[in-house]
Amino acid sequence: DAMVIQNPRYQVTQFGKPVTLSCSQTLNHNVMYWYQQKSSQAPKLLFHYYDKDFNNEADTPDNFQSRRPNTSFCFLDIRSPGLGDAAMYLCATSRDRGQRVYEQYFGPGTRLTVT
Amino acid sequence: TQLLEQSPQFLSIQEGENLTVYCNSSSVFSSLQWYRQEPGEGPVLLVTVVTGGEVKKLKRLTFQFGDARKDSSLHITAAQPGDTGLYLCAGGVRAAGNKLTFGGGTRVLVKP
Per mean pLDDT, which range of A73-77, A89-93, B27-31 is the poorest? Predict the structure, then answer.
């Protein structure tokens, strides 16, 4: 089945220790997103890639970086995690065909704990 | 900037009761998606509505898109404990590119 996969599902890191979360997709979608979600709130968009073009949200801290080496994979790097970065991180994909339907498909998420 | 307001924020009901979740905006959306998210998991797409006045049914769930494409509702008939979760509405519009505007979410708890 075509899907969005996130690894690991649970990640524990120490305060200030760099961490990388990964996302892969078999949907062949050209747009990939990273969201941060805290305590039953709506997901908050950090950035997205439209093909290879990186689009950062204005309020995303510099501490968060991303890489998309190819269509299928996307990584979220947190350079120096703080306690406030503990959250669920969600990867999502969509296909832009110039249509007026804006569906996104989410992975299962990575729960990040910062100790 | 588009905003989506969801109500209520939290709903606790007994198994077998009905419930309705609302998603309202002053902006027009090209499409509106409803997601359900269970604890510890990612949101799962339930339905997409595109046409004003559209009604879609998914078993016991009925989704409606307002005539002006500014609001939507989700109605669950005879709720079951398996319907428990966070329900999110999200709207898309061409001016926002490929980004979605999310409502604040409605936490639904169905007690057996």
Answer: B27-31
